Amino acid sequence: MELSYATFVLYHYGRRYVDRIGEVPEKRDLDPVLGETLLTTSGDIGSAIRFLDAWFDSPDPWYAREGFQLRRCFASMNRLLAQGDFEPKRPGSPDQQRLSRQLAVSLFLKPDLELAHPTKT
């Protein structure tokens, strides 16, 4: 049986969760769709693992207050990106990277903002 990258991301998440919290994460946080979404959002397996490590290793008490449920990790990712604590390896020009950082900061400062896809006409 061949394991997918998303399965490895979920395994790493579960291991880090147990190390930090001392118990197994809830079943709904081990959903393969969440693992795949985190992998896609991060850009690659290395970035997903670095994000999880930065999240669980951060001394910022905000993360502990918010919790370490994988289904809520994207707010944590925005915070880590906005603060410069995590930088995914993504291709792109320096201008694209700067704009991505500004978007993360905006989402962090105004969490009620939502990204909307433009409608096709």
List keywords for this structure.
single chain; 121 residues; mainly alpha; 6 helices
Could you characterize the architecture of this molecule?
- With 121 residues, the chain is mostly helical.
- It has one domain (5-109).
- It is 61% helix and 0% strand.
- It has six helices and no strands.
- It has helices at 5-21, 32-42, 45-57, 61-66, 73-83, 94-109.
- The N and C termini lie far apart (45 Å).
- The model has no long low-confidence stretch (mean pLDDT 82).
How confident is the prediction overall: mean pLDDT? 82
Structural class: mainly alpha
Percent of sequence in beta strands: under 5%
Main pleated sheet: none
Helix content: 55-70%
Outline the secondary-structure elements.
Blueprint (H helix, E strand, L loop, with lengths): L4 H17 L10 H11 L2 H13 L3 H6 L6 H11 L10 H16 L12
Helix pairs in contact: 1-2, 1-3, 2-3, 5-6
